[in-house]
């Protein structure tokens, strides 16, 4: 029984072979890998009709593969590497040998299948895969394609940025796939070589929202993308939500997405079609030319436009596949390329007297496989998608690049980047490009830096008050000099009061020196020195006089001894020299420099295209903290000590030291104003105008008050001719230490009055 079966099978086999030989027709078997369902690029179904038309034309031609019957079989690769490889293997193991693999339409599928198809000695030709890595002959030894690899689109993108629209800043975002990483790396390399600044390079796997947000935060305007169209939809939806769309934002996608890819319904997208349309409007698309731009007759005896008409009226044509119309030319052409390469191989085999013809090919025939591979590399045709040949034996065709833009909700052809010319040039389609309001978007927010200056009205007002203060100082100085022999003046140490007036004038002068606006290191030094010395001189004059009162009334011996002005001058000189020394060391160690300081919180937007950033010019010294705080501490200690002395002598009434009471008031005044001024200067550090206004106000107010406290009583006394008797002067001291115990004591003014 077993023998019977065997004989039966052998008979059957012989019958098939005989049958084949009998009608003298061998099959040339092509296996198509079409991504029809799945994710990524799923336009495989659109390839079927062009394949059918091409096979009809080749058969009708009669001179290609004569005596053979060309067949085309396909699998749905689902744009998935695993499924593509699995289904291809299945075909290899269950079907008679194929002569060529045609596909995949997806790069991910082509990458997986072409790494193994060559092991079956098969040449593989893809109509549509555009991943740059497929050009690598070491990884994909027998792979060809009709699609231009996406990195070649980068040349157009760079040309567009530099030469067409003068954009020098861009950002990138790509899907995490080797395909898209390589395209993006290529763009980054070319951009860097062309001095294009890259704001950020975003990568995402699934949800691009945070990456899109980052683009927005980086103020990206020109954004180069590399991704499949399902991810492009997610990106646009995220862009809509983030507000990263509109006439000022330029998205650049690849052109091989389906025609209205942004409107394709997608369960993963929660944006309405209207929102997607808004986000996509104005986006650019770059791709290889889909159809021969030259109106010439190609293979099949027709022009590209004739071919399209034929396709359109064909009974098998279904409009639902129109979004993938761009693949029609390449799909038609790749069948011709395959047939011509196999025809070439057949002729070659016959010419070299090979025992086998192409029809006898098995997967073990590496020599035939090599001949087919060589023949494919040598093909050159005028196809429906353009002139096709493979550059220098490489995997890729040379083609012009088409630039499109979504305008008014439609993809509009703008022009062609000619890579066949030297230098490469861009041929515009007249009047195709329409910018909103005829304005080319900027590559970044235009930033205007504006210096914050002290408003002239404020400055003039302050200067007027300071000027009046100076006049007042000079009036008091004149009074002091004129009435120097008047006892009221004489008894109040007029020389020390002159020093006080000098300090006051310096205080007023300080406010004339603006802390910002055209500052130089000299102005920085002048302001610091002026203010520091002004304060020190004024205060030390007050302090020294208070100290004298305190000394006299806390030391009985001194009652009969004169504390001379020279001693007070010595105190002033010591304090001033100490502060001067600190200032000198400060400027030697860490001199002032002028720095522009940008104020983050001070920004104005003009539209969303121009940003005005405000800055102030400030005096900066690296070690200023140490010196400033040393000065604060010294002045603070003196202020505290002075206030203490004034408090201790608050009940003293000495007509001989006739202004002691007022000096005390001045000290309190200085203490309070200094404390408030210091606090405000720390709080308002970055608010230059406010700080200038407040500190100047405090300075003018405090200085004027000091002058008035000291001089008004004297002027009043002199003008009203109050006799400053030196007899019967009463002095009352409350030291708080029980030294005078509040006792009143009298003393001869001539003993204690500090006459000069
Ligand atoms: N035919 C569209 C290209 C997509 C891809 O290479 O995967």
TrEMBL record:
UniProt-recorded Gene Ontology molecular function terms: G protein-coupled GABA receptor activity
GO cellular component: G protein-coupled receptor heterodimeric complex
Subcellular location: Cell membrane
Keywords: Cell membrane, G-protein coupled receptor, Glycoprotein, Membrane, Receptor, Signal, Transducer, Transmembrane, Transmembrane helix
Biological process per Gene Ontology, one example term: gamma-aminobutyric acid signaling pathway
Protein origin, superkingdom: Eukaryota
InterPro entries assigned: ANF_lig-bd_rcpt, GPCR3_GABA-B, GPCR_3_C, Peripla_BP_I
Domain G-protein coupled receptors family 3 profile: 458-721
Chain spans, region Disordered: 735-756
Keyword Membrane part of the UniProt annotation: yes
TM spans (from-to): 458-483, 495-514, 526-547, 568-589, 626-646, 666-684, 690-712
Membrane topology summary: Multi-pass membrane protein
Signal peptide: 1-20
Name this protein carries in UniProt: Gamma-aminobutyric acid type B receptor subunit 2
Organism for this UniProt entry: Dreissena polymorpha
């Amino acid at each position: 029984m077993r023998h019977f079966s065997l004989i039966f099978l052998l008979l059957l086999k012989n019958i098939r072979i005989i049958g084949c030989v009998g009608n003298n027709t061998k099959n040339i078997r092509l296996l198509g890998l079409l991504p029809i369902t799945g994710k990524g690029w799923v336009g495989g179904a659109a390839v079927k009709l062009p394949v059918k038309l091409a096979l009809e034309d080749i058969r009708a031609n009669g001179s290609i593969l004569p005596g053979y019957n060309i067949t085309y079989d396909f699998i749905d690769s689902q744009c998935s590497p695993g499924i593509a490889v699995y289904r291809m293997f299945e075909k290899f193991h269950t079907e008679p040998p194929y002569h060529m693999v045609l596909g995949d339409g997806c790069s991910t599928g082509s990458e997986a299948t072409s790494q193994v198809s060559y092991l079956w000695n098969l040449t593989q030709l893809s109509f549509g895969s555009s991943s740059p890595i497929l050009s690598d002959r070491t990884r994909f030894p027998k792979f060809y394609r009709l699609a231009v690899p996406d990195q070649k689109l980068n040349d157009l993108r760079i040309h567009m940025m530099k030469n067409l629209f003068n954009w020098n800043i861009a950002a990138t975002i790509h899907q995490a796939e080797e395909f898209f990483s390589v395209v993006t790396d290529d763009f980054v390399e070319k951009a860097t070589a062309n001095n294009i600044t890259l704001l950020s390079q975003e990568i995402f796997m699934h949800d691009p929202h945070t990456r899109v947000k980052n683009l927005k935060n980086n103020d990206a305007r020109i954004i180069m993308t590399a991704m499949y169209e399902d991810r492009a939809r997610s990106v646009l939806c995220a862009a809509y939500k983030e507000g990263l769309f509109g006439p000022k934002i330029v998205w650049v996608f690849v052109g091989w997405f389906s025609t209205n890819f942004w409107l394709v319904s997608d369960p993963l997208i929660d944006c309405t079609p209207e929102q997607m349309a808004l986000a996509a409007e104005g986006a650019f698309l770059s791709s290889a030319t889909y159809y021969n731009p030259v109106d010439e007759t190609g293979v099949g005896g027709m022009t590209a436009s004739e071919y399209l008409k034929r396709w359109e009226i064909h009974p098998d044509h279904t409009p639902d596949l129109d979004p993938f119309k761009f693949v029609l030319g390449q799909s038609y052409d790749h069948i011709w390329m395959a047939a011509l390469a196999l025809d070439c191989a057949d002729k070659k085999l016959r010419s070299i007297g090979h025992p086998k013809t192409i029809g006898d090919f098995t997967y073990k025939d590496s020599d035939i496989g090599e001949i087919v591979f060589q023949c494919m590399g040598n093909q050159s045709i005028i196809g429906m998608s353009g002139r096709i040949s493979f550059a220098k034996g490489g995997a890729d065709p040379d083609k012009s690049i088409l630039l499109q833009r979504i305008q008014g909700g439609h993809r509009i052809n703008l022009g062609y980047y000619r890579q066949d010319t030297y230098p490469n040039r861009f041929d515009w389609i007249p009047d195709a490009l329409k910018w909103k309001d005829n304005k080319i978007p900027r590559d970044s927010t235009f930033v205007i830096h504006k210096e914050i200056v002290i408003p002239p009205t404020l400055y003039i007002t302050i200067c007027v008050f300071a000027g009046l203060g100076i006049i007042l100082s000079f009036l008091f100085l004149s009074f002091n000099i004129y009435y120097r022999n008047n006892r009221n003046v004489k008894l109040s140490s007029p020389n020390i009061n002159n020093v006080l007036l000098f300090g006051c004038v310096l205080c007023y002068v300080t406010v004339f020196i603006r802390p910002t606006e055209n500052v130089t290191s000299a102005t920085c030094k002048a302001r610091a020195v002026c203010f520091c010395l002004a304060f020190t001189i004024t205060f030390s004059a007050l302090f020294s006089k208070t100290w004298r009162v305190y000394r006299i009334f806390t030391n009985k011996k001194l009652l009969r001894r004169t504390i001379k002005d020279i001693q007070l001058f010595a105190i002033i000189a010591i304090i001033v020299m100490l502060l001067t020394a600190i200032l000198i060391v400060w400027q030697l160690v860490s001199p002032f420099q002028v720095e522009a300081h940008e104020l983050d919180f001070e920004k104005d937007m003009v539209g969303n295209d121009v940003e005005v950033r405000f800055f102030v010019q400030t005096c900066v010294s690296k070690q200023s903290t140490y010196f400033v705080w040393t000065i604060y501490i010294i002045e603070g200690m003196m202020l505290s000590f002075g206030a203490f002395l004034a408090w201790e002598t608050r009940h003293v009434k000495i007509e001989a030291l006739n202004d002691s009471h007022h000096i005390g008031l001045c000290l309190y005044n200085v203490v309070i104003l200094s404390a408030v001024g210091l606090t405000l200067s720390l709080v308002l550090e970055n608010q230059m105008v406010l700080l200038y206004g407040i500190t100047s106000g405090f300075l003018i107010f405090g200085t004027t008050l000091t002058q008035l406290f000291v001089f008004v009583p004297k002027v009043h006394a002199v003008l009203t001719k109050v006799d400053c008797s030196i007899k019967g002067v009463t002095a009352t001291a409350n030291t708080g230490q029980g030294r005078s115990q509040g006792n009143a004591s009298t003393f001869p003014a001539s003993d204690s009055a500090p006459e000069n």
